[in-house]
Amino acid sequence: MRRGSWKIRIFIGLAIVAFAFIQKCNNKEENPYTGRTQTINMSPEQEIAIGLQSAPEMAQQHGGLYPDERMQALVDAVGNKLVNNSIARETPYKYDFHLLADDRTINAFALPGGQCFITYALFSQLNEAQLAGVLGHEIGHVIGRHSAERIAESSFWQTVTMGATVGADMGNVVGSIGQNTLLKNGRGDELESDELGVLFMIQAGYNPNEMIRVMEILKAAGGPDRVPEFQSTHPDPENRIEKIKEAIEKYKGQG
Ligand SMILES: [Zn+2]
Questions:
Q1: Cα of 67 to ligand 1 centre, how many Å?
Q2: How do 96-100 and 108-110 pair as beta strands?
Q3: pLDDT confidence band for 130 (50 / 70 / 90)
Q4: Strand duo 115-119 + 96-100: pairing
Q5: What's the predicted TM-score (pTM) here?
Q6: How far, in Å, from the CA of 83 to the mean position of ligand 1?
């Protein structure tokens, strides 16, 4: 390779990396519901559209919806109670709470824009207040805009990786930094959602200590060598319990 083209490659690579950083700074905004500044590159309407589009496929992956309408009605009632007594009601999001037929996988998750899911395997182990804890946590992911934030992060790292690959053969190094950043954010997301979940429980009149029980149930379900999915990307339950206790202290007067 000629000396000149080597310099041009470095220059283009740096320009792409600089572009990624400028984009990231321009996309910073304060979340009006959590007060946290985050990098987001989509509107709430786009989040809602992504969630609605992916919801049927997510349900399909867990054996479809649970057939008993009475159980589904209970999930709806608890979910709506949390929304109607909290700031979630003032957001543009469209909340839907789905009970999934899957009776083997202990799991709950939320898609951007308000589509929340819980498997029957988890649901069947919970009392109403504990169900409120799980759904409150999922609503926390929605209003915390965690999926949108992760999408923005990953497109940032894709651009940086592209710049580094053009500039030199460093794509893999930068790529792995990106992965770690995503995982670290994921853990922070869980703690923020636990805290919001506790607040929503208190505001809806549920005993927030039941959230601690939820963590114990998740931990027990994990067993010696089986980590529940709800937990696999999540921080250690012991660590979460400490933070949950702090949140209960912080919000206990807000019922
Ligand atoms: Zn979570």
A1: 25
A2: unpaired
A3: very high
A4: parallel
A5: 0.83
A6: 17
Residue 194 has a pLDDT of 94
Better-predicted residue by pLDDT, 192 or 168: 192
Q: In sequence order, which residues have a C-beta less than 8 Å from that of residue 214 and are 6 or more positions away? A: 126, 130, 133, 134
- Residue 136 contacts residue 101 (beta carbons within 8 Å): no
Distance (Å) from CA 233 to ligand 1 centroid: 8
Task: Say what the pLDDT of residue 16 is.
Answer: 82
Task: Give dist(CA 41, CA 181) in Å, integer.
Answer: 17
